[in-house]
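User: quick one, sequence for these tokens?
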């Protein structure tokens, strides 16, 4: 029935058979502002994009180099098909409850005019907030199993925009996003976010990466023409492909302001609808963990005198979680196999054998009594073969004990000693883990992943992922920790790829192991990050003893992890960002505002609140003279009555923040 209704929305506007190369297909967004032109010149296929008559992408090449031939020339258009689609779908969790999916589509079918006469199609979907397109390889005699050596897709930028990126070879994507003119970029990962001189914001990324290699970009000969570079297999091939088959969608968000990048749902819309019929077992929530203690070297992962994952310690954490309303307790180092260098010997890990001082049965029974769940942990040390061999038994063990979320990890520069985390090899593995976990009703928090591309729409048990430089760098990074601007950039770069398990919420900034490394924020900014950084499984990172007797902890324990609505009242990439989110289960709003190393005053009109309604605001703000270097702990808590007419004055300290809860009366 659902499918039938969807089909009703699909209105086929026109269907034109055409064999002329001169025909210039064109498709516009529903509001008419964005246009994509497609054309063939001397047998090669090109597209270009404009918005309100301003060029976004100049003529950009499409096509492939295959192992045994080229698939990028002698094309003629054989058919053009236009259609429109409009639908609204509901997310079981997310930054809002419903998502509008409205676009105009153009499908261009081509065929080589000589030789093997192979067929290739490109499908463009143009939304009001950007463009997605993908290649389709139809079933055909002369193209069955084939190997892609190079995808030639270009993004010929109209200018050398300011671009925020991390280099392609950044280990686990855990880098600091730097701004540079687009033509000076190295090979970089996507999402690649840019600001144009005309004040537009563009993000290039991809959607629905399921059996392909991740896309990276590199400027062609120091120009602003960005070319695709797919992450290779160790043997040099990029993608093993079959026809019929499709590539991931290549996406370009085009926004008038930075906040609109965050509100774009183009990537999710370009993923397939949910595959899981009953999603009632998928539950967003907040968790704590026996975790920061390991990073601060108070505990060890392996069994010994400083072992963190003991039954006694876990029960202490469960009691704390129950008292403060956390839904989960992550415990790392519970299982056999942690040794000195587990990043090289991941195949020693057992995912079913607990250390003798960790009583899984006793712990999970106790947790159930307290209405808390253990969050499981599978660190693979990059050995996917060892993990896949145990996958079913590992998930079924956890399911038997009521563990409904597992954090996975792949710490090792290469998977199985040879393949990149962004290769087709890795993509296939991660996908298998998500689908297997769903069979056992287990949610996944994937660390050291491939860059996310919106698969959570199809598999909403894929809750959150790392693939970014998280708070753990404030424990041991040799460069001193995450600089103040980092969290004012990631919502507009990595954050556009999906939820981030950044793990904010550290309350004790002293670092006995690396005294020159520490959290470079104020406490109020740590609170605000719970809202600014979106993750449906949101961690409070610190050891529980550091939360005792801290009144500001109330913000973390009150802040939901699932939202009905998100708005971005104000932002400037790399400088500051304010995000307001409405709770999925109440009429309350939560706001986070953060700044870089500059202190600043912002004004925040609460126009997003219901007109005429009364609210009580509880504001957690940087205290007098707060400063992230000299006085980071000073926080003030203030209460006041507000309405949608109220304009709050926010005073953010250097690397400071304000966190606000607004409760409807
Ligand atoms: C790296 C992860 O990011 C971190 O959260 C985890 O504690 C370690 N790997 C061990 O699995």
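Assistant:
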């Amino acid at each position: 029935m659902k499918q039938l209704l969807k089909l009703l929305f699909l209105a086929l506007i026109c269907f034109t058979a055409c064999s002329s190369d001169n025909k210039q297909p064109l498709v516009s967004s529903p509001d008419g502002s964005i246009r994509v032109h497609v054309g063939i010149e001397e047998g090669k296929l090109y597209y270009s994009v404009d918005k309100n008559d301003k060029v976004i992408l100049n003529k950009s090449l499409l096509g492939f180099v295959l192992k045994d031939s080229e698939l990028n020339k002698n094309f003629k258009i054989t058919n053009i098909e236009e259609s429109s689609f409009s639908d609204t779908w509901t997310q079981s969790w997310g930054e809002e409850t419903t998502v509008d999916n409205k676009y105009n589509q153009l499908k261009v079918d081509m065929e080589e005019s000589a030789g093997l006469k192979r067929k290739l199609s490109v499908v463009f979907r143009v939304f009001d907030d950007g463009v997605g397109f993908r290649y389709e390889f139809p079933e055909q005699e002369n193209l069955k199993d084939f190997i892609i050596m190079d995808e030639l897709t270009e993004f010929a930028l109209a200018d050398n925009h300011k671009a925020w990126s991390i280099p392609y070879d950044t280990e686990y994507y855990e880098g600091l996003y730097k701004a540079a003119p687009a033509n000076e970029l190295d090979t970089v990962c996507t999402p690649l976010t840019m600001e144009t001189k005309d004040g537009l914001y563009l993000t290039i990324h991809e959607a629905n990466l399921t059996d392909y290699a991740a896309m990276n970009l590199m400027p062609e000969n120091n120009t602003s023409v960005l070319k695709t570079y797919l992450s290779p297999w160790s043997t040099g091939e990029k993608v093993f492909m079959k026809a019929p088959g499709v590539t991931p969608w290549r996406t370009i968000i085009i926004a008038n302001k930075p906040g609109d990048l965050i509100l774009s749902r183009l990537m999710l819309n370009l993923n397939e609808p949910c595959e899981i019929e009953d999603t009632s077992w998928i539950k967003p929530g907040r968790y704590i963990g026996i975790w920061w203690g390991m990073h601060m070297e108070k505990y060890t992962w392996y069994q010994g005198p400083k072992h963190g994952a003991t039954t006694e310690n876990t029960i202490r954490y469960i009691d704390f979680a129950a008292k403060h309303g956390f839904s989960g307790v992550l415990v790392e180092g519970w299982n056999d196999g942690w040794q000195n260098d587990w990043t090289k010997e991941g195949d020693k890990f057992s995912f079913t054998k607990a250390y003798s001082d960790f009583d899984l049965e006793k712990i999970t029974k106790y947790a159930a009594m307290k209405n808390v769940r253990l969050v499981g942990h599978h660190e693979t040390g990059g050995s996917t073969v060892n993990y896949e061999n145990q996958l079913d038994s590992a998930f079924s063990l956890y399911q038997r004990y009521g563990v409904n979320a597992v954090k996975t990890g792949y710490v090792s520069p290469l998977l199985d000693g040879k393949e990149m985390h962004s290769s087709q090899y890795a993509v296939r593995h991660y996908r298998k883990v998500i689908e297997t976990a769903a069979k056992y009703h287990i949610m996944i928090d994937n660390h050291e992943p491939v860059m996310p591309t919106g698969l959570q729409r199809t598999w909403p048990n894929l809750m959150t992922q790392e693939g970014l430089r998280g708070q753990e760098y404030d424990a041991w990074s040799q460069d001193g920790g995450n600089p103040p601007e980092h969290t004012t950039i990631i919502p507009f770069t990595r954050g556009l790829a999906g939820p981030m398990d950044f793990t904010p919420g550290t309350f004790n900034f002293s670092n006995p192991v690396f005294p020159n490394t520490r959290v470079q924020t104020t406490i109020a900014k740590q609170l605000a990050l719970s809202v600014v950084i979106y993750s449906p499984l949101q961690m409070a990172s610190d050891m529980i003893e550091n939360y005792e007797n801290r009144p500001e902890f109330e913000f973390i324990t009150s802040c939901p992890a699932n939202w009905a609505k998100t708005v971005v009242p104000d932002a400037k990439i790399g400088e500051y960002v304010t995000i307001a989110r409405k709770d999925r289960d109440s009429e309350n709003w939560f706001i986070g505002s953060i700044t870089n190393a500059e202190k600043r005053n912002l004004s925040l009109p609460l126009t997003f609140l219901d007109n005429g309604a009364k609210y009580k605001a509880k504001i957690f703000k940087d205290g007098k003279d707060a400063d992230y270097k000299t006085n980071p702990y000073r926080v003030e808590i203030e209460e006041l009555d507000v309405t949608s007419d109220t304009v709050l004055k926010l005073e953010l300290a250097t690397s400071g923040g304000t966190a606000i809860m607004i409760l409807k009366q």
